[in-house]
Amino acid sequence: MREFDLIRRYFAPLATSPGAAGLGDDVAVLEAGEGARIVTTDTIVEGVHFLSADPTETVGRKLVRVNVSDILAKGARPHEALLSLVWPAGRAESELEAFARGLGEDLAAFGVSLIGGDTTGGTDAIVATLTLTGTCLGAGPVRRSGGRSGDGLFVTGAIGAGGRGLRAARGEIEDDDLAGAYRVPRLPAVEVAGLVARHASAAMDVSDGLLGDAAKLAAASGTGAAIALESVPFVGAADTTGERLDMATAGDDYQVLLACRPEGVGALIEEAGAAGVGLTRIGELGSGPGLHLSDRGQPVTLPDSLAFEHQG
Amino acid sequence: MREFDLIRRYFAPLATSPGAAGLGDDVAVLEAGEGARIVTTDTIVEGVHFLSADPTETVGRKLVRVNVSDILAKGARPHEALLSLVWPAGRAESELEAFARGLGEDLAAFGVSLIGGDTTGGTDAIVATLTLTGTCLGAGPVRRSGGRSGDGLFVTGAIGAGGRGLRAARGEIEDDDLAGAYRVPRLPAVEVAGLVARHASAAMDVSDGLLGDAAKLAAASGTGAAIALESVPFVGAADTTGERLDMATAGDDYQVLLACRPEGVGALIEEAGAAGVGLTRIGELGSGPGLHLSDRGQPVTLPDSLAFEHQG
Fold first, then answer.
1. What pTM, to 2 d.p., does this model score?
2. d(C-alpha A274, C-alpha A266), whole Å
């Protein structure tokens, strides 16, 4: 069963406070108001979110980054973290030391203090959960739901590092740089949080694939989305529609997807340039419900998985 | 390696904010001051913290209770929770539904709203992590470290339900009541939070065994502890020193251990009685460093594990 189904069916009914947003967003609000405190939690499992052969130092870094990505995308700066670690008995202590070193260096790099946690054993796979708080730069987190028809749709950085990087990390293609980007996701500059707080009507991080995430953002905003595939910045050669579709649906990119009102686009682009945040317009919200995909002027039929996803 | 060693060696250096208390306490402070907001996280793993054959409804309840226990013991009321769930592919959806039902009913019973989470797969064992916030009834959490020589040492409820209950749940002894108490820990009445906030100089929940936890509280307070084993309330027959030692070191009790200044003891006992919180004096802090154990007037040599533990 897919995560979204699990959450909706069994756990969303338990989310009774307004800050929970019905579990339909990426973060929850701990304390409302100016400088609101938000919180997110993400788990990574060996064999699912990283490879058994990945150096554990990179596992620690990835754990930090997949969570920081959620906080930045909501227009907030990361603040404090709790770690829950299930560490298999068969893993060497040197690997634990490397995990802690990678975790600690990235926590420090993002200005995060570890404030609590729990360690235990009992599985064959490493299971690591970080709960991360953030401090909103604006009046609250920028939700998925604030977009409306006519808003420009933008993405930071380049898409495809996660998907193509996984193939590289598995040795299926040769690309050490992308393998590294799979193991340690490259987040946009932290200044993206300010851009989101000041200019985004809706935002989220791209973790499940650009197109699927765009469809989620549009659905949460009660609108559709039109995306021109040829305008998406990819990490490497993507010469055919099929290759572009592959990279736009592969996930694990940890870039920021955001919508912006037409009147704000000029300032957004100017500030992104000044802050050194790569930002590309890939389409717009509107054009009727659902995701409308084109490539070089031709309509593209959505993959089945995506046609399903965007109804979710 | 033991959890305490892991935390001290690798993760405590990452805890740089004052609210983290160097990862040496049960909770961290998210927001200081009156009505301070605190947070804890605890993970339960199939085969370690619950049995594979346990009904998943009770697994959901246990997850809530092992975390609520930490919050109550610090003089706080539970508030909001984030769930991270790793659910094996081989488990039936009806078991997931039962897990969510048990979780939801206990969250509601303790007044907690679920505000976020993450679900994934990839392990053979169920791994469930709850991160739980709480609101302090006093100016902040009651730490392990506030005790001093001469303080009375008290425990709520009865000790041994976890250890003897595990044997019952495994079918080694016949006791459905205790098997139930292993699967769904019986916490003290929530009014214990107020008692702790008003009267305790130091407090913690009893999760790793009464004697070991008492040694930890004493060490954090910079003192020793003297405990009279025959005064400890046990869940069932404990006719010999060996049986009493077994139950006092077995863990998984989720009662509250607290210290109280001599001048506060009268009010503590009176209010506990009025609130319906079972409370028993088992000894006192002081008598030189380390744990001093006696039984019916005779000194008791500490088990090796404990003699080691209290130096931690």
1. 0.91
2. 13
